[in-house]
Amino acid sequence: MTRNIWWVIIPALILLVGLLGYGLTSNPKHIPSPLIGKAFPTLQGKDLNGVDVTLGVIDGKPTIVNVWASWCGACRAEHNVLLRGARRYGDSISLVAINYKDELPNARRWLSRLGDPYQWSFHDLSGRAGLELGVYGVPETFFVNKQGIIVEKISAPLTDEMLDDGIALMTK
Amino acid sequence: MNNNIKNILTSILLLSISSLVFSAGVNEDPLERRMLDIAAKLRCTVCQNQPVAESNSGLARDMRAVIKEKLEEGKDEKEIIQFFVDRYGDYVLLAPPKSGNGLIIWLLPPILLLFAFISAIMIMKSRSGKVTPPLSQLSKEDQERIRRARNESNKLGEDE
Amino acid sequence: MQGFVSNYLIEFGHLATFTAFILTLFQLSAPWLAGRMQSPALARSGVMASYIVLILMTIGGATLIHAFVTGDFTVKYVAAHSNTELPLLYKITALWGGHEGSLFFWAWILSAFTTILAIQGKRLFPLRLPVMLSVQAGLLLGFLGLILFLSNPFERLLPGAVAGQDLNPLLQDPGMAFHPPMLYFGYVGFSIPFAFAMTAMLTRWETTLWIGLIRRWTLFAWTMLTIGIMLGGWWAYYELGWGGYWAWDPVENASFMPWLLGTALVHSITVQENRRMLRSWNLFLAISTFSLSLLGTFLVRSGVLSSVHAFAVDPGRGVYILLFMVTVLVIAFGLFLAKGRVDSEQEAMTSMASREMLFVFNNVLFSVLCLSVLIATLYPLALDAIGQKITIGVPYFNSVMIPLFFLVILLMGIAPATPWRQVNLARLWSRLWLPTVLGFTALIAMFVWDSQAHWFAFVGTGLVAFVLFAMLIDFIRNARRRAKQQNENIFNAWIQLVKRNRRYYGGMFVHFGILVIAIGMIGSGLFRSEQVVLMAKGDVIEIGGEKLRFDGVKQFRKDNYFALQGQFALVGTDIVIQPERRKYPVQEAPTTESGIHSTWARDVYVVIGEVVNGRYSVHAYVNPLVEWIWYGGFIIVFGIGWSFSQRLREKRVRIPASVSQGNAV
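The joint structure predicted for all components is written out below.
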């Protein structure tokens, strides 16, 4: 074997190790969404009280669509963030939700116990609406600007920072 | 008139009973088969490395139901797969797309093979260094030895 | 007193393991200390250290097994992986059912192999043994460090759990019980060639002098790995219910990569022995094969890749293993770069058209295969680093790897007919023209039989036929020659030939086994029939030429689970197929047991699912020739055994082909 082959193998080894090191820090399950930059689809259905609602831009304002379920532990963790956010940003944004694959009584009980920051929650019992949005787990949150374009999708529990960043993006 | 209707109704009744008694030869729903063929090309996004056709997770079931629905609506395989790619990205495809970064990984193994073969040939060629001097320059004994060895080798053939 | 003993027995095991750690540190530094202090006795003490380490590790292992068998739930690992209702066999095999225990088991095997190496070395290479043991000690130290400080199976759970969490139901199975040990024997086995290579580079040890010694170790490790992989595939086939046996999952790939390079190494060693060539290849392969074993360990336990097989994720351990692996790789490849050219004496290539060159191609093919699998396994991770996510799944791997394997099979047919040094192309053709014709005939026949099949079926069948006939003709030719020389009749010649050339014909048996496996894969991979139907009692489906009737379900309780068992009959026979859905109350995850009826020609494979509108969802397959894959596995193991049994005859002196008459064995 000639010495020259080592100029290939050494960088390759460095690349390998670097890659694996990076791999330790990354989350193999997080999927970037191809919907960012696309229009939020219009989805019609009923909310938790049986009232007809349409998912999309609400009241002409930048809209946050949060996906949650009563059986989801991490949703609990981000719930306070949403309550705070609803209070802080109040009228400048709309905050609605998709209740994903959840039974009505469980969902209603959850909200009455922990507080309801949403204008309403779209009841997606079958998960079909979620599929339309590329939802693969809960919680997820979509940030939609006034023009109805999805500017950001978070596939993890929200923190106050993430919420602020998302809203900044939405209202630009 | 009455008789005809009676006959028809009796036939229908008998046929339905007989299909219950003589157990049905069941066939796979062709729509189900088509759905599974498509689902076999999609990756279950919440599973560890499984196709949608095989996974029992909630999301996989939902996806299978959607595929079936769309097949009933008359959509074809390409449209259905595109539907999922639009929402979940290339990640939902079980094999990388043959364009962009995906193309690199498709082409890499054949290119590697070609490169390795050619390198090997070139390197081994450069190693064919040691050359025995031409026959006429060797001593008589050496020539005799070579001739003998050649004969033996021809006789016995090459084993292993 | 009883309570005291049982409570503290595990601590004794823990202490033993810790002592082993200290001794291993000593074993690692013995040669260097000996050099410093000019004390040869100190160097030899490494041998004694390895014996004691094995004894200590055995004590540790024994106390762990004892804790499992007696249901000592004050040991955290036991509580997490066992249960009082667990059958005895699985209580023992639970030792390697989880991360900590399986790591300990790995280290235990390493210490055992090191001791065997020491015993062998005392007789055959006493001067270099201390360095060899030092290399092994380095490896063992890495594992013991991980075990004692980050993944400790001896950790206590006080107060003890009332009941254990039970072993993962998927692992409560004979195939799964022995799959890890076989794999570990393989992975650890490759540490020996690794140690030889390292020692050779560290002590300027001419390759010719030790290459024969690692041949058996390499073959042994390779065989164990093969058995481990086959067991995994066999288990996946009958247990997981998707009718397949290999999914190119990252963890499966992690075991396949060392196998690929191990195969290359086994063949490359032959070239070294016969022609004193490919020394650098051998060093490289010896180092890389074991490095891949370590890489496999990393991939499986660090959570870096998404896989159905992965152990529970813990980045902390991942960092440790990565650092350990980096250290080993840097030292090994660094040495190779600096001191790879240990011996200058090496034969030159006479001609490019020779068996040597074919072996080089063989090395190239397997290396490219291995590299391709590695890159494809890691590519999603690389793209993830730049924000893109893709999946590289079965369709990719099959499309890319199978053609490469076809090339390997082609080589398998040509190489045995090609002589060393220089081939006479006319003579080669005279041996191969008939197999070529028969190969093409088979290809055409397959096409005629089913022109809609994937082209893999045609090419695969053609190649298998080609190699089969090439091997047969080679065998007949050799037997004829022998019969003429020894004045025997042809049948005696055949028998004597195989008996007296065990290494060669052992290898031929292994190749034959590979062909049998290939046939099994072509049949079950390309000609499988599959149906998913809802069935009520009495319903019949027609699938793959079989008629399957559903006769209802039975429900019962056994051992530590509840079962719902479907009754399926093959119409017109008294064959009953009984797939199950089991619920293990402790673990709560239900499992399915496939119902399989096997004959040499096909498997009828049934999985029973859930009830939909009063009918059961049934997934049925007919897999033609799938059993041939397992038959092939047995043939391979037999072939290796045959090859090993050569030792029973008198030892022959190995002379390079340049000196002999070209008939070396």
